[in-house]
Amino acid sequence: MTIELVNVTKVFPGFTLGPINLNLPDDTILVLLGPNGSGKSTILNLIIGLIKPDTGSIYIDGADIAKIPVESRKIGYSFQNPTLFPHLSVYENIVFGLKKGDKKLKGLQIKNLCDSFGISHLLDRRKINGLSGGEMQKISLARMLVKEPKIMLMDEPLAHLDNLTKNKLRMDLRQILKEEKVLGIYVTHFEDDVYALADSVSIIQKGQIKRTDTLRTMLLSEGESATIGVRATSSPSYSHESPTSLSSSSIFEIFQGDYNYLEGHVTESKDGVTIFMHGAHKFEILGDYPTNSTVGVLIKPEDILLSPDLVKTSARNIIKVRVRSISNISYLRKGVLDIFLGIDDISLKSRITVESKNYLGIIEGKYIYAIFKATVPHVVRNSERENMIK
Length: 390
Ligand code: ADP
Ligand code: MG
Hints:
This protein is of the alpha+beta class. 25% of the residues lie in helices and 34% in strands. A hairpin with a 2-residue loop joins β4 (55-60) and β5 (63-64).
């Protein structure tokens, strides 16, 4: 399934959305990221047909949705606050809306779906009273997926869950959407959702889409944009000017958090320690992940230590990298530098003080060791059956 929005606009008193142009290829997961009130829910409401655009057109698989009846659009819509039927059991809630024959036919599928979400043990619960927010969300998502939608529109479905539940659920959700070949649009104002779910990201502000790109392109261009900024200044080694090319459509700038993203192939996992390879480079992280699966991790720049020499240390990750550039970014405190490092197609950023940089003699072009402990990477993706970022 594909979705295309062409010059779509919608005007509310005091708010103008668009013109929005979006083109989602088959089975993509798009994360639509933006602050409250930026128009995210409105875009979903336009696609599902709850509201009509003032101008422009929306196409599903090339067909104008204005001509497709709402009920035959095969779109699942999950709202921020799930609404379950209080007088029905968990199972009845999940199969609600399915035809009688379908319930039987889909027995196995329902079981698998509930297993994936970890809610099989709840199926016999007579009432939904007393279920946790996370369980309700999972039931609500399962109810939608069992109808085999070709498109899932998800409006901050995990917003009210605790971080641990959220983390697990995001990975499950991505895996299920990929397995079922469902095109998904996932609306959020949380940065972590982006890393865990997105193939592509659209950044929306004040009714305008500022940028749409694949997650990979966005993550890679974070490093590049800062590098370009440094090169444009006169200082040969590092600059106290803030790079001018960091645009407001940078994920990291919007959230003021920033991370390194690394992805690789699990070669070994035992006793709570996992080894993954990225090209010829080996990394060690905590946790058990299936051999041959792919993991994606985030690493804070503050957690990457630098050393000019290969030192003996308890840290399990040591990688020889070249100093690509050194930069002082405006939102950092005075005296703190970002050191951009790279080897092959790996880009890393380390954050150190000016004093440390001088002490270690770090200059552009030099090879040094980047070091971090196995406890540092935060796993945001794990999948056995797919390449995670296209
Ligand atoms: P988001 O989901 O990004 O938080 P929304 O799409 O819900 O943002 O809303 C964007 C803006 O449009 C807000 O200012 C909101 O008040 C306004 N808005 C949304 N729906 C309506 C409506 N039906 N009538 C009038 N204004 C609306
Ligand atoms: Mg909203």
